[in-house]
Write a structure and sequence with these properties.
Helix content: 55-70%
Distance between the termini: 40 Å
Structural class: mainly alpha
Number of strands: 2
Number of domains: 2
Shape: elongated
CATH superfamily of the largest domain: Winged helix-like DNA-binding domain superfamily/Winged helix DNA-binding domain
Strand content: 5-15%
Largest sheet: 2 strands, antiparallel
Number of helices: 12
CATH class of the largest domain: Mainly Alpha
CATH architecture of the largest domain: Orthogonal Bundle
């Protein structure tokens, strides 16, 4: 069973929390939440039903559903007389990677340095960094942690936070004008 299929997981909360990472428009966001709600409560889903529930014209709903399918977030399947709307792609990080929502090279670098596959939590944190910091800064923080042989997500996070607090730029770091000063011999950030 996948993480988002667990009974204790609130998929709608996850979507709301990761809205900026998912890159959903307002209409897509509303349709996703409504599809999830209707699925959870076993309410039959159709373009007309979505239009009625969201107060959007059916044509807009149809266009929005098509966009969600194109992003691979939504999969519509017909079996017999029943049509199912599945949002599995929305929760699948691989789909987001393929759609270009997340830079694959950054994830590959982290997996290589950590010498293990990234967990969902790792991917979420790196995605948060991608929205907050420039890519070059993230890579430099990874390199800095590697240099001290203390590669961990929390350690890299502390490097990024300190650099931001001190208004360091990637250019300053690359030119050797600054360094991460929060490292002591035990490798903890301070």
């Amino acid at each position: 069973m996948k993480w988002y299929e667990q009974r204790f997981v609130s998929r709608r909360d996850w979507v709301i929390e990761h809205q900026e990472y998912l890159g959903l428009s307002e209409k897509e966001f509303m349709i996703v939440l409504m599809i999830d709600f209707m699925s959870e409560h076993r309410i039959p889903i159709s373009i007309d039903a979505l239009a009625q529930k969201t107060c959007m014209p059916a044509k807009e709903v149809d266009e929005t559903v098509s966009l969600l399918c194109a992003k691979k977030y939504l999969d519509i399947r017909a079996s017999g007389k029943r049509i199912s709307f599945r949002l599995d792609g929305l929760y699948d990080t691989e789909v987001a990677r393929e759609a270009g929502m997340i830079d694959r090279s950054v994830f590959d670098l982290f997996e290589s340095e950590l010498k293990r596959p990234l967990t969902q939590k790792d991917m979420e944190r790196i995605s948060d960094w991608n929205r907050t910091y420039e890519k070059r800064m993230i890579i430099l923080a990874l390199r800095e942690a590697s240099m001290y042989q203390k590669v961990s997500i929390p350690y890299i996070d502390s490097i990024l936070r300190e650099w931001t607090k001190k208004n360091y730029t990637s250019e300053m770091i690359e030119q050797g004008k600054v360094a991460y000063e929060g490292t002591n011999r035990t490798g903890s950030a301070g």
